[in-house]
Amino acid sequence: MSTEKKSFMDSLMEFVDKIAGPLTTFGNIPFVRAVVAGMAGSIGVTMIGSIALIVYLLCSDGGLTANALIPFMKPLAPKIVLIQSLSMGIMGIYIVVAMGAEYAGIKGFSKTTGAVGALFAFFLLNYNSMGTMLNTAATTLEEAGAGSGLSTAYWGAGGIITAMVATAISINIIDFCYKRNIKITLPDSVPPAIADSFSAIIPYFFVALVCWGIRTLLNFNIAEWITTILLPVLGAADNVFMFTFQQFLSSLLWSAGLHGDNITGAVTSSFLTTFTLENQEAALAGTAVRDLPHVWTSNLCRLSQWVSSCWPLLILMWKDSKKVPQFKPLAAISLPPAIFCIIEPIMFGLPIMLNPFLIIPFIVSHTLAAFLTYLATAVGFVGKMYIALPWATPSPLLGMLGSGFSIGGFIWPFIMCALGLAIFWPFWNAFVKDEQRKMAEAEAAE
Q: What percent of the chain has pLDDT over 70?
């Protein structure tokens, strides 16, 4: 009997191996497979939006610096940001279409029918009026539609949870109807595209009935409901426990398909702006950086949040690019946005959301890094920030310049990257093995 003491890493690897089976089972649930594939399917649009955002930041005043870094392109800045608005800004649309198609394929019916049905359900569940939709007193059709519109508030990352619900409702209703032959059947001589369209009419009616009832009769907005029940738990308290909890909650929401930063930031931004201003006033009055009143300021999370998750994942993708070929192009195109803390390409490209192998280290790395970052700032290793810099400033520069040239602020993001790398390592290895298994099964099937 061996009495050799196992290292912590060996014990952790054994633990990951034990849970790999249940994680794989979870990942093989049809709906989870559809969500993951749908998010990955939208990555092309997200990538283009990320690149457009970087260009916009470089050629606009106040993007990364007070004056545009590429001044001759400044007149084009409003036009360039349009690409970002119509890609990342409405990514919920692209994701729900991709998820609907993938889930329909898994269920065994037309992907076009699934994509259209899911998008239809998404619009019904996500309806928010911006004006009078119909003016019954108008004398012309143009006047009747004047001032009408739809709010796109939850068409972006904030609407991903609604996209998931819409996909689940629509595809399962269509599948239920098809399996019980509740549909219009045309002769075999009718072209398939037309036959599919007619066969979907009755299922679409039930999709409309359910989703319309949820949003109008029940007046239930999924995205707003989640925000309403989660935001009250965050309060204006500058302490390590509240900051750590906010980062934990944000990562938990992200991993479930919600835009955690937007949801938690809706509350914290109000008092964090005040904290930053109070630090500014104290610094201008001659207070030393170490003695500024607040540790938690608007950009503190940028020193821990994404550098402890997305940066390590970039390294790991490069490491295993030969084992899983799709990692290399994803890492290459995700690198420039990640430098500026634009993380959507990685979040949706791998993806991290609903990825059974990456959710655990993602939440752990965010939470632990937040706890350590607050303490490092409180004791003075990282300078307290009092200079408001754009959110997309690369994290090392943000930590250094935001605190009046703190060397610790420059070094800290790299320390958090190393911490995240250690946390992700065993889970990533299990993830790579699962991806290799899928590749082998696909090759065998072919």
A: 86
**3-state SS, residue 64:** coil
Instruction: Map tokens 């066969």 to a residue.
Output: 199
CA distance 423 to 256: 20
The Cα 422–Cα 415 span in angstroms is 11
- CA gap 409, 382 in Å, rounded: 5
Residue 402 Cα distances to 124, 197, 307, 394, 420, angstroms? 44, 57, 17, 11, 23
Using alpha carbons only, give the angle 104, 110, 114 rounded to the nearest 5 degrees: 45
Q: Which residue reads 């108008």 in tokens?
A: 138
DSSP 5: P
Domain segments of the chain as ranges: 9-29+235-445, 92-130+149-226
Q: Which residues contact 284 (CB under 8 A, 6 or more apart)?
A: none
Beta-bridge mates of residue 129:
150
Output Rg (C-alpha) for the chain, integer angstroms: 24
3-class secondary-structure state, position 150? strand
Name the pLDDT band for 11 (thresholds 50, 70, 90): low
pLDDT at 23 over 70: no
User: Are the CB atoms for 61 and 74 separated by under 8 Å?
Assistant: yes
For residue 346, how far is the Cα from the chain centroid?
Answer: 9
**DSSP one-letter string for 354-392:** T-TTTHHHHHHHHHHHHHHHHHHHHTTSSPPP-S---TT
Query: What is the rounded distance in angstroms from the CA atom of residue 407 to the CA atom of residue 376?
Result: 13
Listed ranges 282-291, 311-320, 338-347; the one with the highest mean pLDDT: 311-320
Q: What is the pLDDT of residues 360-382, one digit of tens each?
A: 999 999 999 999 999 999 999 99
Query: Tokens 């959110």 map to which residue?
Result: 391
State the Cα–Cα distance between residues 10 and 17, nearest whole angstrom: 11
Coil, helix or strand for 129?
strand
Task: Please name every residue paired with 341 in a beta bridge, in sequence order, or none if there are none.
Answer: none
Q: Which of 102, 96, 77, 85 is nearest to 46 (CA)?
A: 85
CA distance 53 to 419: 29
Which one-letter amino acid corresponds to residue 252? Answer: L
Instruction: For residue 129, report the phi and psi dihedrals to the nearest 5 degrees.
Output: -70, 150
By the 10 Å C-beta count (0-12 exposed, 13-18 middle, 19+ buried), 165 is classed as: buried
Q: Do 81 and 87 meet the contact criterion of CB atoms below 8 Å apart? A: no
C-alpha separations of 418 from 256, 309, 422, 424 in Å: 25, 10, 6, 10
Q: What is the pTM of this model?
A: 0.71
